[in-house]
Amino acid sequence: MAAVEEICLKVAPYGHRVSAKKWGTLDGVGDNVVIALHGWLDNASSFDLIAPHLVAAGFCIYALDLPGHGKSEWSGMYDHAKMARSMHAFILAAGLKTPLLILAHSYGAQCAFALCAAAPSLVRRIVMLDEIGPPCRFAGIPESYLRGPSLEYFAAVAGITARQPRRLSSVDEAVSRRYKNHAPPYPKASEALGPPRWPLSREEVELILCERGVRRSSDGGAWEYSHDPQLQYDFSMRSGIPPLEVRKEMAKAITAQVLWVRTQSAREFLQFTYAADFTNLLVADVQGTHFVHLQNPEVVADLVHRFFQGDSSAGIPLEGAKSCL
């Protein structure tokens, strides 16, 4: 197993601390640097299984705990633009040379989309796992997906109220609660979006998602999830979702080479409508579901390695890809 180093940096302009797990060493010029960005309510450990394969291939991996997740501080600012600014600030604080490489999953891919559109020169190649960008408003998207949240949500946005972490009696309870989202029967929200997207074993939930995602409460009398409860208001999805035209312009602004690692659970109705607006997009269909990098790490690592090394055969152009599996 590749050695891992814990990193914690205070980033501007918000002043919060961002933690990360680092595998591997720099090659002297920084051309082998990969920034890895996890999904919503996950943490840097979601790359534990794929990182050793990439380190063996010569890459240096910085897997971030996005603000509000894992061991990073809670910033209270989780829309894609502010998350992109935090990622940019981490890159500067770590002294990493650009353009660099990005490996991003789900919500991390949404934030990376915003970063690459706002600062195209920062990134030369990016692999997006299962998702290639945020949702947008357009005809055909299920109304339930964009349904406005409750008054509690708006009070929280205004800073009038704040959801408190759920108190848990043990780590086992934390694992059991999280596992409910990954074991049959699948959540209704997932079923509404298509095939089950999140199946993981209890061991994967415990060792990968909860080991870094659960901590002692401040009074020491209970356990709690380490992510900011505000994230469960789902700011990025429900607050200011732009129209399709804006997403299309953002996709056009991304100059990095993009590989979309697509699974059976990819939400076509959310993303395929602006996929064609990417300048340089390849698609690789891989067996697996939303956590394909945990379920099939060797195959995904091989695709990532080849693509980052400039191998165009890692994927096929969008026009040649099937619209769904």
From TrEMBL:
Keywords: Hydrolase. It holds the Pfam family Abhydrolase_1. This is AB hydrolase-1 domain-containing protein. InterPro entries: AB_hydrolase_1, AB_hydrolase_fold, AB_hydrolase_sf, Epox_hydrolase-like. Gene3D superfamilies: alpha/beta hydrolase (3.40.50.1820). Transmembrane segments: none annotated. The keyword Hydrolase applies. Residues 32-131 form the AB hydrolase-1 domain. It comes from the Eukaryota. Belongs to the AB hydrolase superfamily. The lineage of its organism: Eukaryota, Sar, Alveolata, Dinophyceae, Suessiales.
